């Protein structure tokens, strides 16, 4: 009679076989629902999920070494493990999330102009090769955009094409050796990606890791998470990215019922939009580039083209009425986010740019089908609901804007240490 093995340990619990890397990956969430990044990228994943998707299953030894060194528990390199879980990768690739997009022609061009590199040779990667990867990415970005003085990429900030005028301003001793380019100022994102756990991660990836990391820096956006903060460290700046258009919109039964009830009172051109259809363009509000003065310094406050700056006379009532055309466009029958549809031939965003709408106002004044009317003196008449207190509020707003010192407010609440 055979002896039965006791599968329970001293604590009374059953002994289970540990899961391998493939089983552990199957139980982890495949996508990250970030409220902002999901509006700009089709796929948002952690760096760990991105690499697990890209590593070939044929190299079991490399997979075992990478998993043992980077797993969150008992990791041999805790900094690499923390990096894999604290970096979000956003991409607009196909469903496979990560085809190698760098062409062989671009790789050979860099290898010929920078013969000191060993990238793409199939040799084992060393931490020093991480610097060559970042330099190659910057070289390819400038090569892909020959007509631009500098590509719209975070890694290209501080670099410029070589010319006699640039060489005089450039730093005499530069740590970057990129053919045809010169560093005019430091770039913290380049320094971050060239050293630290990024270089040790390249060693863990082994053969072919240079192509994986190169495609990651070229085609994806990288965002670091520190507590409640999330900031971009690589890729096209979020302010230059376009918001993804929804192919299928979810139908709200309450909003559809309200639209069906209002079909007799509202024309087909002015359909009432539901609250979910009205979106704020975050890229313009939070991630836009600052306005600059003639001497190159930052202009604080509203831009010179803003309607409050284009009508500085706060005692002129007709100017106040004109500003109210911008603030309450629906009351005057102008294009608005509540009842108007956006023509995507005019704007690629979810809403139009209403910074300057003088042409639209002049066209509406010539037409009689809108709600804009003039009095006997030729001035625009206000609707009844905008007379009285609303007009006084706008006059008060103009007075406060003319007295507000935006530069000193920013220095007080956001001081530079």
UniProtKB/TrEMBL annotation:
GO terms for molecular function: metal ion binding; telomerase activity; telomerase RNA binding; telomeric DNA binding. GO terms for cellular component: chromosome, telomeric region; telomerase catalytic core complex. Keywords: Chromosome, Magnesium, Metal-binding, Nucleotidyltransferase, Nucleus, RNA-directed DNA polymerase, Telomere, Transferase. It catalyses: DNA(n) + a 2'-deoxyribonucleoside 5'-triphosphate = DNA(n+1) + diphosphate. The lineage of its organism: Eukaryota, Fungi, Dikarya, Ascomycota, Pezizomycotina. It is an enzyme of class 2 (transferase). It is found in: Nucleus; Chromosome, Telomere. Its main location: nucleus. Transmembrane segments: none annotated. Its EC number is 2.7.7.49. GO terms for biological process: telomere maintenance via telomerase. Telomerase is a ribonucleoprotein enzyme essential for the replication of chromosome termini in most eukaryotes. It elongates telomeres. It is a reverse transcriptase that adds simple sequence repeats to chromosome ends by copying a template sequence within the RNA component of the enzyme. This is Telomerase reverse transcriptase. It comes from the Eukaryota. Belongs to the reverse transcriptase family. Telomerase subfamily. Residues 258-274 have a biased composition (Polar residues). Residues 1-28, 53-77, 255-274 are annotated as: Disordered. PANTHER family: TELOMERASE REVERSE TRANSCRIPTASE.
């Amino acid at each position: 009679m055979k002896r039965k093995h006791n599968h329970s340990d001293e604590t009374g619990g059953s002994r289970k076989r540990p899961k391998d890397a493939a089983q552990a990956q199957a139980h982890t969430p495949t996508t990250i629902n970030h409220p902002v990044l999901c509006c700009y990228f089709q796929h948002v994943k952690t760096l760990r999920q991105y690499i697990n998707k890209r590593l070939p299953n044929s190299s079991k030894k490399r997979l075992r070494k990478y998993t043992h060194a980077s797993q969150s528990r008992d990791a041999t390199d805790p900094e690499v493990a923390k990096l894999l879980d604290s970096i979000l990768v956003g991409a607009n690739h196909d469903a496979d999330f990560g085809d190698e997009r760098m062409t062989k022609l671009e790789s050979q061009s860099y290898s010929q102009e920078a013969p000191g590199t060993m990238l793409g040779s199939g040799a084992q990667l060393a931490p020093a090769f991480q610097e060559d990867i970042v330099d190659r990415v910057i070289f390819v970005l400038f090569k892909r955009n020959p007509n631009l003085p500098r590509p719209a990429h975070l890694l290209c900030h501080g670099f410029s094409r070589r010319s006699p005028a640039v060489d005089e301003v450039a730093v005499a001793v530069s740590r970057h050796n990129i053919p045809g380019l010169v560093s005019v100022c430091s770039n913290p994102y380049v320094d971050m990606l060239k050293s630290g756990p990024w270089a040790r991660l390249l060693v863990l990836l082994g053969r072919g890791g240079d192509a994986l990391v190169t495609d990651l820096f070229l085609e994806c956006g990288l965002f670091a998470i520190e507590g409640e903060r999330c900031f971009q460290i690589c890729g096209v700046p979020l302010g230059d990215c376009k918001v993804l258009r929804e192919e299928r919109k979810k139908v709200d039964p309450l909003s559809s019922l309200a639209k069906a009830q209002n079909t007799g009172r509202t024309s087909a051109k002015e359909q009432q939009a539901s609250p979910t259809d009205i979106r704020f363009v975050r890229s313009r509000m939070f991630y836009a580039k600052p306005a600059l003065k003639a001497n190159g310094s930052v202009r604080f406050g509203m831009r010179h083209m803003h309607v409050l700056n284009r009508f500085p006379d706060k005692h002129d009532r007709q100017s106040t009425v004109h500003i109210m055309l911008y603030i309450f466009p629906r009351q005057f029958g102008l294009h608005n986010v509540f009842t108007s549809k956006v023509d995507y031939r005019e704007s690629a965003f979810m809403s139009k740019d209403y910074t300057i709408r003088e042409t639209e106002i002049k066209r509406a004044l010539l037409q009689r089908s809108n709600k804009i009317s003039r009095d006997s003196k030729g001035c625009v008449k206000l609707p009844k609901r905008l007379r009285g207190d609303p007009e006084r509020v706008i006059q008060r707003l103009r007075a406060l804007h003319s007295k507000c010192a935006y530069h000193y407010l920013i220095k007080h609440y956001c001081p530079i240490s």
